[in-house]
Specification:
The complex is a heterodimer of chains A (256) and B (179). Chain A has 256 residues and is an alpha+beta fold. Chain A has 7 helices and 8 strands, in the order H-H-H-H-H-H-H-E-E-E-E-E-E-E-E. Chain A has 3 domains: 71 residues, Arc Repressor Mutant, subunit A (Orthogonal Bundle); 60 residues; 103 residues. In chain A, 46% of the residues lie in helices and 21% in strands. In chain A, strands 5-4-7-8-1-2-3-6 form an 8-stranded antiparallel β-sheet, with no helix packed on it. In chain A, helix 3 packs across helix 4. Chain B is 74% helix and 0% strand. Chain B is globular. The relative contact order of chain B is 0.09. The chains are: A alpha+beta (256), B mainly alpha (179).
């Protein structure tokens, strides 16, 4: 649409003077809504006519205002019933709504709290599991590092008749000058007793210390390193260990 | 009272009316009753009839405020249009015409003009008074007397096609005077 042409057509002036048909008026309003230039022109024309009308402006008689207000009050009573006239039912309704809302949020809060507690417990459990897995892998890595080392010499100690099925391994590594003890299927010692490890060097038993049994897979207990042993042996001794091995209490022995 | 009260804007007025708040009617009355009543009186020419039409107009504005929107321009222009149409309808009614025949002579525009001079808007009035009479007559006939363009062409003895262009000319004159 050519806006300039439309503006200069005179249709807006006729609209302002109330000389347009309903259809024409609608079209003018549509165009004014769409094109700011047309809206501006329309408003300028309205101001001109309002100014023109100032020549006939006249104060109405003083009583008219009240009369007008009364007539509107009379006519609009139906409309204000659900407007300004606040009924008690409205307030009761609002109160009920507010209470229901509070109840709802309380319940929601309770649910959230319970859900949070459950999640916290799940999290704690997972954290514990995760730590266990980490420990397991750390232990495994350490075990592999020991038993997989090229310098490792595993000295198997076979269980005697008193502890059938039991055996032990001393991982003796002269390269790294390290030694570890691995025990399998050895029953717990009787009360007041402890197992003690010996190394046989030059035919003589050398004390390697008492140990407690740690259950589980790939459990290694670090031992003092000893050079050139011929054999390793475990005896059952009094708690704290003995200076010399009690030979009739030998539970396992293995030669290098 | 009126002078010490701060006037509310037409925008506030519209939103009050939309909310069915009667303060909107008070505001409309405070701000625009002189203009609306003056136009109604100019058209119907009788005080008591003008008062009835004025009442009707306020009620229409109150009831139909939803149909006002900014694409119709100024709110006052919209309200004025309602007033003008209601007044013209009144003039065209049978009851009005019947009464006219037996009634007193109506006050002329000139008389109203002189009484109003004392009250206000003198600046605008004086400016509008300098408008070329042929344009002033044209607007008077179309707007206040409710003439159609055809009737105006006959009355002024000008071609119908000229009415539209003269209306445009009248407005451009008026606007340049008001600048």
């Amino acid at each position: 649409m050519n806006i300039k042409e439309y503006i200069s057509s005179g249709i807006l002036e006729l609209y302002v003077l109330g000389q347009t048909s309903a259809q024409e008026s609608q079209e003018v309003e549509k165009n004014a809504g769409q094109y700011p230039e047309i809206a501006d022109e329309l408003e300028a024309l309205q101001i001109a006519l309002l100014s023109f009308n100032q020549t006939v402006a006249k104060a109405p008689p003083p009583h008219l205002e009240q009369k007008i207000l009364d007539s509107i009050k009379g006519r609009s009573s139906g409309q204000t019933a659900h407007g300004n006239n606040s009924s008690p039912y409205l307030w009761i309704g609002l109160l009920a709504l507010a209470l229901a809302g509070m109840g709802y949020f309380y319940q929601q809060n309770q649910r959230s709290t319970a859900a949070l507690a459950s999640l916290q417990s799940d999290f704690a459990k997972l954290k514990k599991d995760c730590e266990a897995v980490q420990n397991h892998f750390a232990k495994q890595n350490k075990y592999i590092a020991v038993v997989g080392d090229t310098g490792d010499r595993a000295v198997a100690m076979e269980g005697q008749e008193t502890v059938p099925g039991a055996f032990g391994v001393v991982h003796w590594n002269p390269k790294k000058r390290q030694a570890f003890l691995e025990i399998k299927n050895l029953p717990d010692p009787p009360p007041g007793k402890q197992y003690q490890l010996w190394a046989i060097v030059d035919g003589q038993p050398t004390d390697m210390g008492v140990f407690d049994i740690e259950r589980g897979e790939m459990v290694l207990q670090e031992l003092p390193f000893i050079a050139a042993p011929q054999a390793f042996a475990v005896t059952l001794e009094k708690a704290g260990g003995s200076a010399v091995p009690t030979l009739d209490q030998m539970v396992m022995i293995g030669n290098i | 009272m009126r002078n010490i009260q701060s006037k509310i804007s037409d925008q506030e007025l519209v939103s009050l009316l939309r909310n069915k708040d009667k303060k909107g009617i008070n505001g409309l009355y405070q701000n625009h009753s002189r203009l609306l009543f003056g136009v109604i009186l100019r058209i119907v020419k009788k005080q008591d009839i003008a008062e009835n039409v004025m009442q009707e107009v306020f009620l229409k504005i109150w009831q139909n405020i939803e149909s006002y929107n900014p694409s119709k321009g100024y709110f006052l222009a919209w309200a004025m249009n309602i007033a003008r149409n209601a007044a013209i309808d009144m003039v065209r009614s049978k009851a009005y015409r019947k009464e006219q025949r037996t009634d007193e002579v109506v006050p002329s525009t000139a008389q109203q003009f002189s009484t109003e001079m004392k009250v206000g808007h003198i600046g605008v009035r004086e400016v509008v008074a300098t408008l070329d009479p042929k344009y002033k007559t044209l607007i008077d006939l179309l707007y206040f007397e409710g003439y159609t363009q055809v009737e105006v062409a006959e009355e002024l003895d000008i071609p119908l096609g000229t009415v539209k262009s003269r209306v445009r000319k009248a407005f451009s004159e008026l606007r340049s005077l008001l600048k």
